[in-house]
Here is the input.
Amino acid sequence: MDKQLMTFTVNGEAVQVAASPTKTLLEVLREELDLTGTKHGCELGHCGACTVLVGGAPILSCLALAVEMQSEEITTIEGMADGNTLHPLQQAFAECGAAQCGYCTPGFLMSGKWLLDHNNAPSQDEIKAALAGNLCRCTGYTKIIEAVELAATRMRASADATAAG
Ligand code: FES
Ligand code: FES
Here is the structure.
């Protein structure tokens, strides 16, 4: 099938790519834009390894056609850190041992970022609900939940310090 020119904003930068309209967003991110931090796992919508944010909300990029994402703001794991400064959730994952093989980690970080963007004091049940679409074969989930709680605590403290001037 003929390639089609597509335009997105990816991690804050406008990008244009020529790709088949049958390609998923996951395929375009990894194969055309070389953003391989987003993982492909089941490619059936079951594992969450391919989670990215579109307009700030998590979606499964293996189930989305790239051509339907045109003009959207897409955030991948490559856009999560601020330069050399890790996002608090990335830092907490590292400190808590929430990543083992790491294959699921970008997807968890995307889902967790969405949660913390909307809820700065999530309960364990709210964390579990937000991460319910992400599967991990290694960690048993406990350390992942601890990491989200740690990041939330630090982000609240940082926001309070900023507000206090
Ligand atoms: S690769 Fe998309 S949900 Fe598994
Ligand atoms: S750390 Fe290995 S699958 Fe989650």
Summary: The pocket of FE2/S2 (inorganic) cluster (ligand 1) is lined by residues 40-43, 45-50, 60, 62 (CB under 6 Å). Helices lie at 25-32, 88-96, 105-118, 124-130, 142-164.
